[in-house]
């Protein structure tokens, strides 16, 4: 019975911790969406990316003709000159549906090899840290009682959980 009570207490604590975490949602961007056929030539990816904010944890989804195009991550010089000889990472996996995690805060540079970069198949994005969560707006009436209630609820929940756990251990 003690093991079951411990598991219940742990489940309650984890559930409360999950509720308290700020909501963070990574975004998956389909490269070139709304401007053509995904990762292709004759698309201005600078225009596509200019109104987007790319954050650490987001994803780029490249959709392209796997028999012609590729997804190569290069340095800034490789991007500017369309040099695909020594990519930092070859993200091409053969299906024409490649997902690139943006998991480091830095500039990323992508090109397609086989000369397609010269036709416009190149993308530069700057990955930033996510913005801080929004600050809760103050109460309309500024009542100290409402802020006091907020300060007492969470400790009370933990206290009730601890008492319940202790009760189950001794019963």
SSE inventory with pairings:
Elements: H1 2-20, E1 28-30, H2 45-49, E2 54-55, E3 58-63, E4 72-74, H3 76-81, E5 89-90, E6 97-102, E7 107-111, E8 122-128, H4 144-170
Parallel strand pairs: 1-3, 2-8
Antiparallel strand pairs: 3-6, 4-5, 4-7, 7-8
Helix pairs in contact: 1-4
Explain this structure.
The chain has a domain at about 30-130: Cupredoxins -  blue copper proteins (Immunoglobulin-like, Sandwich), CATH 2.60.40. The chain is about 35% helix and about 20% strand. The chain has four helices and eight strands, in the order αβαβββαββββα. Helix 1 runs antiparallel to helix 4. The radius of gyration is 25 Å and the shape is elongated. The relative contact order is 0.19. Residues about 15-25 have low confidence and may be disordered. GO terms for molecular function: electron transfer activity. Keywords: Membrane, Transmembrane, Transmembrane helix.
CA-atom Rg in angstroms: 25 Å
Percent of residues in β-strands: 15-25%
**CATH homologous superfamily grouping of the domain at 28-128:** Cupredoxins -  blue copper proteins
Order of helices and strands: HEHEEEHEEEEH
Helical fraction equals: 25-40%
Largest sheet: 5 strands, mixed
CATH class of the domain at 28-128: Mainly Beta
Give, in spatial order, the strands making up the sheet with the most strands: 2-8-7-4-5
Number of strands: 8
């Amino acid at each position: 019975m003690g093991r079951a009570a411990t598991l219940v207490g742990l489940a309650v604590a984890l559930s409360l911790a999950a509720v308290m975490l700020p909501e963070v949602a990574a975004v998956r961007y389909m490269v070139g969406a709304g401007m053509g056929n995904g990762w292709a030539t004759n698309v201005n990816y600078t225009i596509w990316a200019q109104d987007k904010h790319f954050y650490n944890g987001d994803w780029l989804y490249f959709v392209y003709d796997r028999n012609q195009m590729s997804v190569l991550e290069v340095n800034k010089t490789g991007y500017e000159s369309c040099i695909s000889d020594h990519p930092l990472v070859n993200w091409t996996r053969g299906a024409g549906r490649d997902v690139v995690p943006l998991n480091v805060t830095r500039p990323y540079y992508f090109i397609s090899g086989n000369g397609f970069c010269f036709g416009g198949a190149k993308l530069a994005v700057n990955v930033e840290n996510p913005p801080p969560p929004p600050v809760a707006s103050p109460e309309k009436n500024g009542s100290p009682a409402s802020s006091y209630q907020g300060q007492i609820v969470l400790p009370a929940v933990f206290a009730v959980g601890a008492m319940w756990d202790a009760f189950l251990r001794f019963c």
